[in-house]
Design brief:
Number of domains: 1
Strand content: 25-35%
CATH class: Alpha Beta
Radius of gyration: 18 Å
Helix content: 25-40%
Order of helices and strands: HEHHEEEHEEEEEHEHEEEH
CATH architecture: 3-Layer(aba) Sandwich
Bound molecules: 1-O-pyrophosphono-5-O-phosphono-alpha-D-ribofuranose, uracil
Structural class: alpha/beta
Oligomer: single chain
CATH topology: Rossmann fold
Distance between the termini: 34 Å
Number of helices: 7
Length: about 220
């Protein structure tokens, strides 16, 4: 199998000891929902740093206690975060702690247990989303069905810059998303081995939504 990390520059797999540390805690079946939520929160902060590297900045005059200098700021009306319900909510606070000026849209997607097809059940976007860079967040990218449905929805709203942030991805899902949409970029904390018969990621971490909300 070709190495997706090398063949597609639209995929970024984070490479950091703290990411591996936190992800290993998340993968452990004995990790409690409270610990799991905390790790999702912390790892999302690290991931959004990577995914915002190329944001444009504007010069801003700053008066330090000693003198005036030209600093930089990121324009406040540039960004939006869209969690895919439910599990994406686990990443929202961490992402917003780094980019607090981002507007928030919410997309409800539920994967059918048998067909693995996503069903959209809720959508509420901020006005002007088409002019913002959108951070689409969901811990898991398995078949890619939910992410693709979300991307199709956002493209229909006119969004041009979509950045998909996931924590664990299967190669099947990454390939499906990159093949379907020529512009989207993906950040993931891990690229796992593949999917099992139920379309769960291996080794994965189980059902992220259940582990975040304690509904196992
Ligand atoms: C999970 C996960 C993704 C999706 C990934 O959500 O959070 O949204 O499955 O699978 P896919 O790539 O094959 O579409 P799920 O539908 O279980 O809903 P939940 O967040 O409410 O648990
Ligand atoms: N959704 C999850 O939460 N985990 C998987 O492994 C696949 C889909």
């Amino acid at each position: 199998m070709d190495d997706l990390r090398l063949t597609d520059e639209r995929l970024c797999v984070l490479d950091h000891p703290l990411v591996e540390h936190k992800l290993s805690i998340m993968r452990d079946e004995n990790t409690t929902p409270s610990q799991f939520r905390q790790m999702v929160h912390e790892i999302s902060i690290i991931e959004v740093f990577e995914a915002t590297r190329d944001l444009p900045t504007e010069p801003v005059e700053v008066k330090t206690p000693l003198q005036t200098m030209t600093g930089k700021h990121v324009p406040s009306n540039l960004l939006a975060v869209v969690p895919i319900l439910r599990a994406g909510m686990g990443m929202l606070d961490g992402v917003l702690s780094v980019i607090p000026s981002a507007a928030v849209g919410v997309l409800g997607m539920e994967r059918n247990e048998e067909t693995h097809q996503p069903r959209e059940y809720y959508a509420k976007m901020p006005k002007g989303i088409e002019n913002r860079s959108v951070f689409l967040i969901d811990p898991m990218l398995a078949t890619g069905g939910s992410a693709l449905a979300a991307i199709h929805y956002l493209r229909k709203q006119g969004v041009k810059d979509i950045r998909l942030l996931v924590l664990v991805a299967a190669p099947e899902g990454v390939r499906a998303v990159l093949a379907d949409d020529p512009e989207v970029r993906i950040w993931t904390c891990a690229l796992d081995e593949g999917l099992n018969d139920q379309a769960y990621i291996l080794p994965g971490l189980g059902d992220a939504g259940d582990r975040i909300f304690g509904t196992v």
